[in-house]
Write a structure and sequence with these properties.
- By secondary structure, the chain is of the alpha+beta class.
- It is built from 3 helices and 4 strands; from the N terminus they run βαββααβ.
- It is globular, with a radius of gyration of 15 Å.
- It has a 4-stranded antiparallel sheet.
- α1 packs antiparallel against α3.
Length: about 120
């Protein structure tokens, strides 16, 4: 059973769905063992949609990241990169990623934001 809302119908969009799309995730991991299962499942779900994964250094005492203004939003941050909004939508709505979401929600308190290339 999907846990996330479906993305809007891409046929009604006015933006160029061929521009790169990025899913930015910020979260605190509450159960590392379960989160490891999410990481494996998400990696398998990315492959068919040419998605790229990049883990960002979180602003912790052990990391090279620094917060210049405000408070660090989370201890774990990542970016999934897609060649287009269409590929992102297909990935996010895929049964494989919906299963990964269910795992992630048991191990984190996430904030995920999809943005498109501004060029």
């Amino acid at each position: 059973m999907p846990v996330a809302a479906a993305a809007p119908d891409i046929s009604q969009r006015k933006e160029d769905t061929r521009m790169p799309a990025y899913l930015i995730g910020m979260m605190d991991v509450t159960d590392p063992e379960v989160f490891a299962r999410y990481s494996e499942a998400a990696g398998r779900a990315l492959a068919p949609f040419q998605g790229k994964f990049r883990r960002l250094a979180a602003a912790t005492t052990e990391s090279p990241a620094h917060v210049y203004e405000g408070k660090a939003p989370a201890s774990y941050m990542f970016i999934f990169e897609f060649e287009s909004r269409e590929l992102f939508d297909r990935f996010y709505q895929s049964p494989a990623y919906q299963e990964a979401i269910e795992i992630r929600l048991r191990a984190t308190n996430p904030v995920l934001i999809m943005v498109m290339d501004g060029d």
